[in-house]
Hints:
Blueprint: H1 3-17, H2 21-43, H3 46-62, H4 73-104, H5 111-130, H6 134-144, H7 150-157, H8 161-182, H9 191-199
Helix pairs in contact: 1-2, 2-3, 2-4, 3-4, 5-8, 5-9, 6-8, 7-8
Amino acid sequence: xxxxxxxxxxxxxxxxxxxxxxxxxxxxxxxxxxxxxxxxxxxxxxxxxxxxxxxxxxxxxxxxxxxxxxxxxxxxxxxxxxxxxxxxxxxxxxxxxxxxxxxxxxxxxxxxxxxxxxxxxxxxxxxxxxxxxxxxxxxxxxxxxxxxxxxxxxxxxxxxxxxxxxxxxxxxxxxxxxxxxxxxxxxxxxxxxxxxxxxxx
Length: 201
């Protein structure tokens, strides 16, 4: 980066540390492409890379008060990304292990029972969504049920994109915790698939 860019970056980091949403938005638009590209090199899936990119900026906002202007901001973001990629690999490894176990037991597969399981998970997911705070529930349903973009949600609910990001992150965390409490641990690795299936039922 040129010297002027470094000065501007430092100003943006200082403002972000103080909770300035405009500075956050500026950093988001400057870095989202770079973070997505970095994540994609590892996960080789655009959708997963996009989700990881969103999580990076959710983490950035959450820990904004810990930012050190003297430290390399680019390196800070890439470190967050690497950590999230590592967690994604762990999640994928658990899912693959579970899938292998299912393959071994394929001869005992019962389509009727599986259908009933899906019905149960659908009801569980609906309960988890209904237990969200009102605003988070609106954001989540617009995103997952209507396929609305964060920009559209921001405009419809008259809230910032940062607030949309925050609601989505909190909603997903809440739903995972809800499933963790109400289902066996092995179900958690399939949570994204289950949620997609039951929400689009």
